[in-house]
Amino acid sequence: MLKDATMPIFSPDRHACAPSYVKLTKQPIAGGTYRPLANDEDSNACAPSALSGHHGSKLYTQKSAIHATSDNTSVFIPKVDAPYLPKTTDDKSINEAANNSTHPAPLSAEIQLTQTDKHPLMQAVKVCKQAAHTTAKALSATGHAVAKAVNATGHAIRTTATAVKTAWHTFVNFKAVQLIIKFFRKAYGPWKKRMRFSYAFYAIVFTLLTSAEVIFLQWGVYSEPTYDKGDEVDQTTKILNSVAGQVTKFVSQIWLEQKYQFLLNFIGIGLIYLALVFVLNRFWIATVIFGAAMTAYGVANSIKMGLRNEPILPSDLSFVSNGNGGNLLSFIPKDQQALVNGAITVLIWFSCACLLLFVLDGRRHFIHCSWKHPSSNAKNIIGTSSRTLAAILSVVLLVSYTWNLNIPGAWSYTLATNLGYKPVPWNTYEDAKSNGPATTFQSLVRVKAMDKPSGYSKKTMEEIAARYTKEANKINTSRANILTDSTVILILSESFSDPLRVPGISFDIDPMPNIRALKDVTTSGLMLSPGYGGGTANIEYQSLTGMNLANFNDQLISPYQQLVPSQKNVYTFNQIWNDACQAQCSYAFHPYLKNFYLRDSNYKKFGFKYFRTIDSKPALKYQDHIDAGYVSDASAYQNVIDQLNQSDGESQFIQLVTMQNHLPYGDYYTNNEFKEADTSTGLDENEEVQIDTYAKGISYTDQATATFLDQLNMIEQPITVIFYGDHLPGIYASAAKYKENQLTLHESDYFIWSNSSSSSAGSKLSPEESDYSSSNFFMASAAEHMDAKVTPFLALLTEVHQSVPAAGRFASTDADWGTGSTSYLDSSGQLIKKKNLSSEAKQLLEDYRLIQYDQTAGKGYLSENWFNRVP
User: Fold this and answer.
1) CA angle 201, 207, 210 (to 5 degrees)
2) pLDDT tens-digit series, residues 554-581
């Protein structure tokens, strides 16, 4: 019994040495002895010697989630009779517990867990532990899967690499391949030691290519002359006047006339070539880029000269920079497609030749340099320094030459004039022919809008403001209406003009009967246009601002691209309506691309509420075409009608620039009665096709405009329309040959009309006031037509228009017609000299020049005096 009473209390397990965690019944300590938990036999079994076979001399214990409260290795045995001791190994419940759990928890622990589990916080902890355990298992499984996939991928790569390597070794071991390898190994030595082309060879290529590009550019500005059937021209004259003859004269005049324009153009584009070589430090790569760029420029220049009598200008680059380069290709006429295709073919062969020379040339760097080891030795130091210095100096020289080419007294201007340069910037066509297109382009890179007029100061401008405020008050006392009580629609009709006014052009039918009849009963006349075949944005700028291009420096060719982007505040007439409604009451429409001439950004400066085009968001609602032409005028007008219907009777200013009659003028109208009606003489086939197509377009515009005016008559609110053609199309090659026709080719049609709801309906200014005008006078004339009060600025324009009916800067200006680039017309349309103007007219022109300078390039003193608002 004693032996049973002292037996260790634990359940048998497969681990004989595992201690029992069954809690003994609490007994009073009345005496007794501490006995080991195991007998001698069991103790021996747990001795280190018994564990040495498995774990050496270390003592291992089994972990459990429920820990015993004591680490004692003995238990207190009270001195009581054996029957009162708890059963151990013979107890059935303990054995069953041992079978069900490897580590049975003491009873107190179970009770404690049961009570604890009911606590919400402990339950949350338990759930979090379980979630963490589940997540850990999932991550572990994922890690094993990824590792397995990586191993499989690695194995596949190694297998593939081995297969490729084996195949490669098999391939190179072929006898034929071994022969090829041996050949290249033997050839590599001589190839590595191949000759470096000399700098003399580079100089020869540089000279020949630059000269070829100068000749090609100059070739593009000439056109083959045409002769009437009755003209008797000898063969020598024909040869000299041909394109080949004119190009030959341009080059040979160096020796025949001591004129060095060829050399001047050679220097201009040669500096570009040189800068490319030194910056890239790769001669053949620079050669490819230079040749491709100059050839593309030459082709574009030739096409533009043929279409618009104007070379490529720096301001034209904004078309490409604004993402419209692809759309420019649509302007290429069919008869010029062969030139484009030929240029592309030449460039492909040229690029292949340069690539071959690049491979054969052993000299990889034009100037030796080492960016990795620039100071490792004297050669690298000198080479790298020279390469850097050459690149910087070449760029500085190019920029300095171009920047100062149109500044009198500057070094490049002096050099150019010594070589025969005589700038004609107001006539870029003649400038390109005489000075070369490259020189013309570079001379217009840097532009100063206006030189400061003598006497310009704040005091002077305050005196001018007071003078024309007084004049405005005087005019307004006799006028009954307010300008902004009416809606004004300013319509620039693309290339609209009467073709029957061009010498040599005639038709059996009238292409514009409606507008011709309208001009007889409303304010109308001819507008002096600074453009022929192009320059839309310039005429548009004049009509919106009241400024005249003749007051700007001759180098300023396109205000929309060269001036407006740099201005902070730009005054335009639509702002009068914005001031009246104390919001933006002006809108603009153009059925083409918004970025042409930078209209999108410029119109925002002008204060238009929105600008709708075919690519705006939202786009124009109406975009119908007539056959293969551009958006029709009828569709353009319908967009304006919709805007009027949405205005709820509110007065507004609407700007519309149409597109229907824009070049090119291919034979794209299916039913063109003007082909049969054309009775013109002396026209070649291409000119006749273009004129017939244009006449049909004018007929469509005439019908659409008449319908549009009828629709306006049905609207019960006062509306006044200012309609004008911006310039003539550049299709009259036969008429343009004669100097006496130049003025006619710069006169387009205009009219000012008011609907039946206007008090000015049926008004018509006197012929002296309206027969001839410039687009900068349109708003002043409209105010007079409407019997509306004016601002001090409009008062000035009214006075200038009465003294000088029309003034403009346009191509082919005769020096006797005015001073420099400006031409003046009297009320009968005759050219007059500035010196023959009255003293009053001269004073008005001087005040006009001061005002334009103040508002575009000066301090803006007049904006402080409310100069552009009705007193």
Assistant:
1) 135
2) 888 889 988 998 888 899 999 999 999 9
